[in-house]
Amino acid sequence: VSAGNGCGHTLLTPHSGTLSSKNYPGTYPNHTMCCWRLQAPPGTSLLLAFGDVDLEPSEHCAHSSLLLADPQTGTAYGPYCRNSVPSAPLLVTNSSTVTVLFNSTSHRSGRGLLLSYATSQHPGTGGAWSSDPLLTMCFSVYCPAGCKDIHGDIWGNPSQGYRDTSVLCKAAVHAGVIADELGGQVTLSREKGITLYESAFANGLHSKRGSLSEKRLLFHKVCCLLSPACDDVLEVVAFNASSWWHEVDALGQDRAWVAKQAALSTTGHSWAAEPGAEAAWLELDLGTRRNVTGIITKGSSEQHDYYVTSYHISSSRDGKNWRPYRGSSGQEDKVFEGNADSQGEVSNAFIPPIVARYVR
Fold it and tell me: Which one of 60, 90, 119 terminates a domain?
């Protein structure tokens, strides 16, 4: 939990999380405070990674400070500010509960703070902010929850990889190997860079188009260890829909926006529901039960500037009983962010994957 008027981006879960001061990485405001209470499962201990602690220096950190307290053992860490920084980037506690207290008085400079944490069950915490150039060619890192909305850029996409200057855990969310609301272990390799990294919109993040880098990062999905074809494009045996649009254009010509036009490779116009239809759906029949790890959507075409901006997913194994997709949180139906124009492709990962024959 967090409380106070100085809290910035915050996502706390029992196993990992990310927190920052208000306005980070811009200058934090005067006369603010925030208190975060981190609670891990019983029997585990918390590991805190200091991504950035940039608070205006003062004697004994009196003007602005970061203080950590372990109520179970009575241990305190800090106070920290620019002239009194943590001695190591990773703090290993012996407690499942830690209180993080940030406060400021009048000051002129300072980015504030960025921290992430994980439990002792996930000792290889990578932090949310950047990749380490000293890492080996193939490695595994635990990414905390909350990496999606931190400051920093990513270049590239899941298929070609990411420039090694990209924010590592943010790139992992873009690649669809972890869910931002939970975090998780990622496996990646460091390979020779390429000339150009194309931008892509995926999982609510827009990567940038970037030029040559010496190395690139490639993420590897765990499912590929079990099923080598987990990244293959699945064949759709049949398309079905709640309705379709029978258009008569200005010249009196008919155009049928039927369900079979929904295939991504179809030329010309796509599928569209009947105008004014509520709760419209498109159904994909995969022929047999398959492991579905994600979906790619695109607008109708440049000529017909139509596209879907958001959607829900439901699945069925028999075509009769349907289950809404709720993602990794499991609390409510997940809303997927769709397209912003009719030209670009947008991909969204299913974490966890769907096992079904029918997808709507």
Answer: 119
Nearest 5°: phi and psi at 6?
-110, 15
Mean pLDDT of the chain: 89
- pLDDT of 228 above 90: no
Q: What is the DSSP letter of 233?
A: P
- The CA distance from 107 to 347, in Å, is 44
Global pTM value:
0.80
User: In which region does residue 61 sit, left (phi positive, over 0), alpha (psi from -120 to 50) or beta (all else)?
Assistant: left
Quick one: pLDDT at residue 240?
97
**Residue tagged 């855990």 (tokens):** 169
Residue 352 lies inside a defined structural domain of this protein? yes
25 prior amide bond cis, ω within 30: yes
Rounded Cα gap, residues 61 and 106, in angstroms: 12
Strand ranges, E, within 60-169: 64-70, 75-80, 90-92, 97-104, 112-119, 138-143, 156-157, 161-163
In this structure, what CATH number is given to the domain that contains residue 188?
2.170.130.20
* 49 three-class SS: strand
Q: How many angstroms separate the Cα of 237 from the Cα of each of 256, 299, 309, 359?
A: 20, 21, 25, 12
Shared domain check, 46 and 10: yes
Structural domain of 190: 138-220
Q: What is the mean pLDDT of residues 326-338?
A: 86
Same domain assignment for residues 212 and 248: no
Token output for 222 = 């765990």
pLDDT digits (tens, 9 = 90+) for 240-262: 999 999 988 778 888 899 999 99
Residue 225 domain-assigned? no
Strand, helix or coil at 59?
A: helix
In a domain, 128, yes or no: no
Q: Which two tokens stand for residue 94?
A: 């012996």
- The secondary structure element, H or E, covering residue 169 is helix 168-175
In a domain, 276, yes or no: yes
- How far, in Å, CA of 333 to CA of 314, rounded? 9
Rounded CA separation 20/51 (Å): 10
- Rounded CA-CA distance 9/19 in Å is 6
